[in-house]
Amino acid sequence: MKVKIISYSLSKGGAAKAAKNFLHLASKNKKYEAEMISVSGIIKNGVLFKSSKLSVFWHYSKMLVSRVLTYFILNDKSIKYSLNIFDSNYVLKHIRVEDGQREVIHINWVNNDTISLFSLSKLFENKRKRIILTLHDEWFYCASEHYAKYNSLCYVTGYDDSNFINSYIFELKKRINFENVVITVPSYWLYERAKKSYLLSNCDIYILPNYIDTNIFTELKDIRSKRYRILDVPEDAFIIGFGAVSGGANPLKGFDLLVSALDEVLSKINDKARIVMVTFGANDIDKRVTSLGCHIINMGVISNSHNMAEIYNYLDVMIVPSRVESFGQVAAESLACKTPVIAFDYSGIKDIVTHQRSGLLAEPFSVDSLALNINSFMNMTEKERYVYGENGRDDVVRKFGETVVSEIYFKLIDYVRGDEYEK
């Protein structure tokens, strides 16, 4: 049976990486004819077939209209919004929403007008299409926002008419029969949120964690032993890492909280140059860190997993100060490389980092608590930090390794095909 994995992007962002990893897993099972469909092209049998330039141009024109609407109507610019009132004609052509071919459609992150709410509604009603819907954020049970505001219960109680666009999008979602699909989430936090939401509370929901390739993301002893020389820093340097798509530009990634915490840490030590901060995800160094006085090394945009694994091996600790994470891909990859993690004790990151075992979890979203945890790692011996890293890798292999995730994924595919599956 065909398994069509749908994603806005083939490569950009954690959700695209997760979708591509699902393709990797499904392609290893001879029962499935797996392919990945995106706005920019299709991957089939390991070969990329690009969509036409005209198709991409037309799609981005639709996206622009949606973004103009959200920009002028919605107030909080720190949150991403999606309307999904348009479709990518290219994606729609390859899904064939209303035809009778029996196949599994695995929907991943399909915002940026990849598939409209109107087409999703039709797709979910087609009994020949067996649907797995993977949530990579909260958009499917919120209105137009991708994450609910901290302590907001609108996704549980519903949206009033004070914001027309949110009310309209939520009403469109209420007309979709989500009970016809199998929903998966990458973390227990997202599972709990989805189960208490207005839209998805009665749905069939399973935890399908993101797969981490622990053969690529692993300890590289040669790199780790030469890291001071590679980075050209003193051997007593304490090396911390921060990385995200677009670097610190996305407020949800909490870079502002990290800068404030580092400012607090650095104000209490004499040798600021001993602290080395390695950043990745953006081409330019964020101006907010240049005044801190520590050594900043920016690695730019990293698109290769092997290069990413090398960066994790440079570090004493990876800091993931996100305000919210549906999973925490960077944290899991770092731990797989035996580099411990500091994060906040909130959202999907709690499935990955165990406090005082594989890292330290600060009080959400306390700068003082984050600074205290950075100080704690600074004061540890290298051997003590290494124990944290070893524990982290053991946990990642056990919970997110290929054998574990592929078994869950294959059972879910067979379940939507009609075979029995137990939670």
Automatic annotation (TrEMBL):
Domain Glycosyl transferase family span(s) in chain numbering: 247-394
Pfam families: Glycos_transf_1
A molecular-function term among this protein's GO annotations: glycosyltransferase activity
Domain of life: Bacteria
Protein name (record): Mannosylfructose-phosphate synthase
UniProt source species: Escherichia coli
